[in-house]
Write a structure and sequence with these properties.
Blueprint: H1 9-22, E1 26-32, E2 42-47, H2 51-67, E3 74-76, E4 83-87, E5 91-96, H3 98-104, H4 106-110
Parallel strand pairs: 2-5
Antiparallel strand pairs: 1-2, 3-4, 4-5
Helix pairs in contact: 1-2
């Protein structure tokens, strides 16, 4: 049985990006969302050319995580393949076909820069 070994979210994010690059994922975006949620540190969004490509990317990611002795917390959407979510705890990965990615526009929901307090208004 695989167990989650201690790994930094940055190192895990690097592993994910490496796998996505190896499988020719498109429009890769890595977002630091620590300032928006306590549920995860990094969100990675990428596109596959087709549902088959999306499923292949997700499978390769799961295999690489298993090889690194890291068990994902969950996987959703493998059956349909238009949008697969891989929950790695500190890193959440969304792999989608371009039409689904465009429709949901997750980048717009999560790509919000941290706010800075200025002290004085106006």
């Amino acid at each position: 049985m695989k167990t989650n070994m201690p790994v930094t979210s940055a190192a895990l994010g690097d592993l994910v990006v490496e796998v996505l690059d190896d499988l020719k994922a498109q429009s890769l975006l890595r977002l630091d969302v620590r300032h928006l949620t306590s549920m995860t540190d990094i969100m990675i969004i990428a596109s596959g050319r087709s549902a088959r490509h999306v499923r292949a990317i997700a499978r390769a990611l799961l295999e690489r995580c298993e090889a690194a002795n890291y068990a994902p917390l969950g996987v959703e959407g493998e059956d349909g393949g238009e949008w697969v979510l891989v929950d790695l705890g500190d890193v959440i990965v969304h792999v989608m076909v371009p039409s689904v990615r465009e429709f949901y526009a997750l980048e717009k929901l999560w790509d919000i820069a941290p706010r800075r307090e200025t002290g004085d208004a106006g």
